[in-house]
Amino acid sequence: MIDPSTSPIAAALNSRPKYVASTSLTDPQWAGTSILSGDVAGAVRDLKAQQDGELLVPGSGVLVRWLLAHELVDQLDLLTYPVVVGQGTRLFPDSGPDIALELVTTQTTSRGITIQTYRPLGRRPEYATSSADPNT
Known about the structure:
The structure is a single chain. The mean pLDDT is 85. The protein is 20% helix and 21% strand. It starts with 7 loop residues before the first helix and ends in a 16-residue tail after the last strand. By secondary structure, the chain is of the alpha+beta class. The protein has three helices and five strands. The protein folds into two domains: 1-56, no CATH class; 60-124, Dihydrofolate Reductase, subunit A (3-Layer(aba) Sandwich), CATH 3.40.430.10.
């Protein structure tokens, strides 16, 4: 069995600071981990102002939805795999704020995975009317 700590991804994560938004975790065991509690929105704003580089949220749909609702997301990268799954957790809830997004880039991998990069526009979206022409 391969030791996961020897992977390049593990090495990158282990060498960088990590931030966890939590109401229950008090003593993180992962080196370089800081807990964000209390005014999490203020803490994230401070991190964005102080950090040199990117703050990434890998794989936490709940946190991403919360950050979007508090206008704390600068870029949203969505990966779509060519698989239909009939169950599971929705990325976006049935209700919540409507958020206008601008498509920045899109690419497709050789395995058919599409990667779309969006930037929130900080306003409600404008909705198009239905048309028979998919190009309008």
